[in-house]
User: Fold this.
Amino acid sequence: MNFHPQDGLRPVRNAEIHPTAIVHPDARLGHDVKIGPYSIIGPNVSIGPECQIGSSVLIEGRTTIGRNNRIFHGAVIGSEPQDLKYAGETSFVEIGDNNVIREYVTIHLATDEGQSTSIGSDCLLMAYVHVAHNCVVHDHVILANAVNLAGHVDVGNWSIIGGMTPVHQFVCIGQHAFVGGGSRLAQDVPPFIRVAGNPVEVAGINSVGLKRRGFDDTELMNLKKAYRLLYRTGMNVSQAMERIAIDCALDQHVEELMAFIRRSERGIVR
Assistant:
């Protein structure tokens, strides 16, 4: 994720601001920004070039938004976190480029001094998504309607989370994972796999998504082998990791799977 708050930002240059919108004079707007009726932009906000801000959007706090983002009606970005520990610390929201943020999405400041809640680039956040304090949503992520991320959640590149899914605080979701709608996530989801349900169950690797992203047959077969060792042999995680290291070709994807499991603090979905 690359954030560039100074790239092309100057005070209101060629911006189209609806007369009912309120834009603080200290806000920084890139060229060709459009701000719809009744929206409010606070003093510490930077909005990159070619962004479109819909009606009744609130953007406040120390929020930096990259270029070519579309933010729809009623979204609230940069408000104080819903965390009783927060006492006005200087914290941030950082949003990359080319994102679509739909109606009534909420994205909150981080809780801790100097830290950020961040959204990468090329993401789609559907209506009523909530991204809590200190979350990190990487690039090319899709969060379907009413996904709720608690604090400190990390969502890897190219992951998809189905609608109405709550994600427990500090959970990590690996890259290219797929989470079915209406699931409940209280543990980490390893990269490349599919999970669904409440309680959540694993359902194989994310073959369709991986094929769409250019994974070849050899890579898919290798990941399937690692998946079977991890989930279908009755071995515990440590035993499965030892077998994967012996029986699977340790390409970059299997290496990422193993590294993710080693890093997991909440334990992986079983």
